[in-house]
Design brief:
four-stranded antiparallel β-sheet; about 50% helix
Length: about 375
């Protein structure tokens, strides 16, 4: 076999072997890179889900502290006791015109005092409404004075609402001093807008139950917590889903409110509502494949799924750049390896030719000897 053919065979075998080796190394490196990047996004969005959950828990703890403070306020308890006394006097007087005028005069004076106190608190702390309810279920005071004002929450038109529910549960747990919450619902007196309520019983001297203090919570604070998008890329978002699979916060991708309007029936949401936490790839409520991180928020007997998601395409787009880098590195190493092999090979050949070449010999021409 000629030297040229041997050389060609050597380079074909060597080049192919090293190509296969570096392709295998590249595939392994690519696999670990993909898993590492997906793990990075999974960890980040799982952390975002947990952070949103903790922010909501802190917010609800603040709400508990505020309504507890007001339910123990001496001025508020005094006004509530006066409202009950005026109501009792009116009933005993037989609801005649004179008694009605006295009742309206007294309650108007109390309402005026309450309005200064309650409306300022509602405005500064961002609540929607502030209610004082008697033990019998009569809504005696409201800042907004919508159609629930001066109705009875046990027998009136709003007896099957979240406000009526928290009133009853707060009254049942009056001696425990529990703060109770309702889930979001479409609330008729507020033009069907999504509403959430909390309540706590008010106790007077000797533990007398004076009624219930209730507050209608705003949706803005929860929306602000869930729509904080720093560090979430172009398609990342966090949102809440209730046990009825309807959103409890607004979507980042829709201009109109999605609370109680958009259904999210995905594997990650169902797992979150069952108490699990984790990450997985799944289609979201838009039908878009996403990396979905989920956790569970339990609040006074009901649960919300806390979701943090980013489009799968955005995750994979960050990986494609890494793939190109890996391919470039493998090509560079392959080239260097072949060049090194060529350099060593050429050196060996050169050395071999030197060792195997014709030897120098001393010889004397016979004719020069003069013999």
């Amino acid at each position: 076999m000629s030297l040229k053919r041997k050389s060609l065979r050597f380079w074909l075998v060597s080049g192919t072997a090293f190509a296969l080796l570096f392709i295998a190394i590249g595939l392994v490196a690519n696999h670990f890179t993909i898993q590492s990047r997906i793990g990075h996004f999974a960890d980040r969005f799982q952390l975002l889900s947990v952070l949103r959950k903790e922010a909501l828990e802190q917010y609800f703890e603040t709400l508990r502290a505020e309504i507890t403070f007001w339910s123990l306020d001496d001025d508020l308890l005094k006004n509530q006791a006066e409202l009950l006394s005026a109501q009792e006097a009116f009933r005993k007087a037989g609801e005649n015109d004179s008694a009605r005028l006295d009742y309206e005069f007294v309650t108007s004076a109390i309402q005026a005092r309450l309005q200064v106190l309650a409306s300022l608190f509602v405005a500064k702390r961002g609540y929607y409404d502030f209610f004082l309810i008697t033990p019998e279920g009569d809504v005696m005071y409201s800042v907004e004075k919508e159609s629930d004002y001066q109705t009875n929450l046990l027998t009136g038109p709003w007896s099957d609402t979240g406000l009526a529910g928290v009133y009853r549960r707060a009254l049942e747990s009056a001696n425990e001093g529990r703060v109770v919450f309702s889930d979001f619902e479409a609330y008729g007196p507020s033009e069907g807008a999504p509403a959430m309520f909390m309540a706590r019983a008010m106790l007077g001297p000797q533990g007398r139950v004076l009624g219930v203090l209730a507050m209608q919570l705003p949706t803005k604070r929860i929306r602000d917590i869930m729509q904080f998008t720093a560090g979430m890329g172009e398609s990342g978002e966090t949102y809440l889903v209730g046990e009825d699979l309807l959103m409890r916060s607004d979507s980042r991708f829709q201009e109109e409110s999605t609370i109680l309007r958009v259904k999210v029936d995905t594997e990650s949401v169902r797992r979150a509502l069952s108490g699990e936490s984790g990450t997985l790839f799944t289609p979201d409520y838009r039908g878009v494949p996403v990396l979905s991180a989920f956790s569970n928020l339990a609040l006074d007997g009901f649960h919300w799924a806390v979701m943090a998601e980013i489009d799968r395409d955005e995750v994979m787009s960050t990986i494609s750049g890494k793939r190109n880098q890996i391919a470039g590195v493998m090509l560079f190493l392959y080239t260097i390896t072949l060049w090194t092999l060529w350099y060593i090979r050429e050196g060996d050949w050169a050395a071999g030719e030197t060792l195997s070449g014709p030897a120098d010999t001393d010889h004397t021409d016979i004719g020069d000897t003069g013999i």
